[in-house]
Each structure stands twice: as C-alpha cells, then as structure tokens.
Design brief:
Number of strands: 13
Radius of gyration: 25 Å
Number of domains: 3
Length: 511
Amino acid sequence: MVSQSPYQIKESYRSIPFVEVVLRYTEGFMDNPNFELSDLAKNKLEYNLLQELSSIAEVILQEELDTFVADGNSSFEEFVGKMDLLLAVKYPVLDRILKLKASNFSKHIHNITRRFREDSARLKSTFNLEDITIKDIDVNLGDGHNGEGTSLVHLSNGTKLIYKPRNINICNSYNHFIEWVNSKLEINLKTFKGLNCNNYGWLEFVNYEEASSEADLQDYYYKAGALLAITLILGSKDCHHENIIASGNNPFVIDHETIIQPFFNIKAFRTWDSQYKTPLFSVLESFLIVDPASGSPLDIVGYGVKGNIEVVELEKKVINPNTINSKRTTRFSTRKVIDKNIPLLRGKYIFVDTYKEHFINGFSATYDMLSDSKDELKATDSPLNFFVNNEVRYVWRPTFVYFKILKYMRSASFMSSDEVYYSALRNLLSKAFREENKKDYDFILDFELKQMVNGDIPIFNLDSSDNTLGGKNSPKIFEYSCLENIRHRVDLLTPEHKEKQLEYILRWINS
C-alpha cells in the first residue's frame, strides 16, 4: 500500500484541486525568514501560489486519477501517495515548472518586502507616508515574467502602492508629457506619482470610483477622448480593459510599458494588427476602441463596447476536488467582460454613447492642438524628449495568445520530456512566421521558446531609440523606433487623417 501524503492541509486550502499533491512544492514557504509579513498574509500568498500550481497540474492529475479509478482503486489518499512518488518521474517537465514557479514566487515576495524596507525613506518622501509596514500583498496583477509580476501592496495605514518589477521611468516620462498637454489645452488630465528604482519601481494606486454626477461623466468622456488622441500620437499598444481605470471624472491609463512602441511593418510575420486588418497609424491600434466589424475580441476593449457587460461561455472546472469522485467537467459560466474601465453613476455602467459629443470634442481638441504644435513637437527642445532613453516593453504577440498556448501545453502528452515539450512549443509558435522568412526571425523564436519553456510570457526590453530586438548586432526589424514612430505620426496629422479617425470613433460608438 502506498503511503499517503505527509503534508498537513489547512482547511481553507481544501477547495484547491489536488492541493495535497502540489503542496510539497511550497514546503517551507510559511517559515521563510525572508518574508517580513504576518502569518495571515503569508497564508493568503501560499493559497494564491497553490492555486497557480494546481491550475498548471490539474489536467494531468485528473487524467491520472481517472486511470487510477478505472484500475479499481478507491482511496484518494493512496492516489496522493502514488503521485508523490510518480509525478517527477513520469512528468519531469511539469515537475520542473512547478518547482520553478514556487521558487520564483518566493523570490518575488522576498524582493517586495526587502525593497520596501530599503526604500523606506524615499517611499515616505514620494508618497507622503509616515512610519508604515506592509500589511498584505495581492499578487499577479499583470503579466508574470521570471516569477515576478505587478503586485498591490497594502500598507498598515490603509495606503496602497503598486509594485512593478521593472524600470518605470517611462511612467514619469508619460506624466511629463500629459502635463505638457494640460498646459496647452488648459485641461486637467490626471497623473499619478511614481518612484523609479532602476530595475523596479513603486506607483501610486488609482482607486476605481463612481462618478458623482452627470457633469463628472461629461468631464470623464471629454478626457477619455483626449487620451485617445494622445495614444494615437504616441503609437500606444495594449490599452485593453485591465489597463484602464475609471476614477470619478478621470480616466487613467495605468500600464505605461507599451505607451510608446516601435513600428513593425514586415509582411513575413502575421501580426495581431494584420490579422484584424487594423489601419496603420490609427486610433484603433491602441485597442482603447475597436472596429466591431473587424472580428477582433470585444471583451477586452479598453473603453468597452456598449452593452457588452458579460458573456456566457464554456469553462473546464474540477468538481468534488480532493476526493476519489473528482471530475474535470465542462460547464456554462458567466464571465464579466468589463471591469474598472467603465464609469459608474448610481451603480449603473455608463457607456460612451450617452456622452459621445463630449468624447468627440475631447478627441478633436487634442488632435487639433497636436497638429497645431507640429513645430514644437519637432524642435530640439520638444516635449517628446521626455521619452528619450526610456526602457520600453515590447510583446511580440498579444499576451493572451501566449497564455492560450501555455494552457494548451499543460496536456500529459507534452509533459513527458523536455524534448517533446520544446518541439511542440516550437511548432506552435513558428506557425505565425511565413516559411520563406523563418530563418530571419530565428532569434525571436528562440527568445520566445527560452521564456515559455519556463512558463513565462516572453517580454522584450528595448530602448526607445532602438530599431532592433536582439541587441546592437541583430538586424534592424522595426521600420521606426519608438521615437521615430512618434515623429512620423506628427507629420501625418492632417484634416483628412482626422476625419478618418472620427469615422472609426463613430463606428465604435454606434456599434
């Protein structure tokens, strides 16, 4: 008889499928001396880690349990004991990924608490804080990379700070540019404070707040239109619903890593924009708004789509978890497709159609100001100089595509060896490259593979003046660097171009 798992299971963890199997990967987490947190906070973090590990292992473990039961066995404790001995041998890829995820997660929490302590004086000065400690941490608020991701840090005085495990100087550059726009338009687009610490940073938390009146909503949508014009001139990407916060009468773009982007226009690769026929140098590129006829997903649009509040879809879910009757079934579920990106008034979501004149006026006023400021924008002391020497994040394909691929790779047929996993992953990723040009982009494919074999989302970091992705010796891959892209867009501002953008806006509003 196989012995059962030796790990004690907290009652609150028992809702996590196969928690008794994955718990050994978090051994020592609660006793880690590097975490300067309460047991309550550490319990929650371990719970979050176990949920992540369970979701990665769930498909394989349920298949193994089904086989175990089909062979006439009826003890779940025996199954757990069997998997303790078998998992690393039969599924070495899964074992490696689970160990890496757990190890990197621990390092991430340690980095937050250590850096908070080391940055204490500067944090107090930047965010006007008194003596405070970390009370709690919410993790995985953004795309994870090397085990780290954007996290929400709750402080003992009730203040919340966003921790980002990357250089955030571009946030300060964006703030300076917004202040320049404010001075030119006599508008009051809000910014938020940030403390850049080279390879990581701290940001002021933006609360999702209801509008208090119709006047607030008029102001909100005027500013939202202005931000659309700003993202157009900057060449912004990835302004999806999770990156927009409606706070009273203020819309906020909260993730600035892709607020400026290089311009890629090589036909050897099927991009997101080419797949959905997104017009070049248009208001549709940022994904704040969308052309509903393009076929692009409507549930992640930054400013939403009227009436698109929730969808019914199929989801895989484990029922009767941690029992011999555990099953992975497909069920209908309701998913909310708007979050904090749509303003509320008296508990009701208010979409742009009610305030379309204000939105269009905000866009038009900002577009016209930018067009009238061409000479200033191209001068030696241009406000665009705020973005010089910025570190920019570049994601080769939309992050949700990578997530789908990683989820697909959780099958038992891929987890038996590193060679099998690598080969299948390479085959999936290479499909977006046209055959005759694959060799030219091997360095990109290799970079994606190197990150994804560890369960990470591939992220390139480049300088705002770079035309390459692989360093100075790699081939020029972008037609325009981030800075060249903005300057090119300045030259494109014309009455005809503006009218075309207004057509896209009206098509979205009237959808």
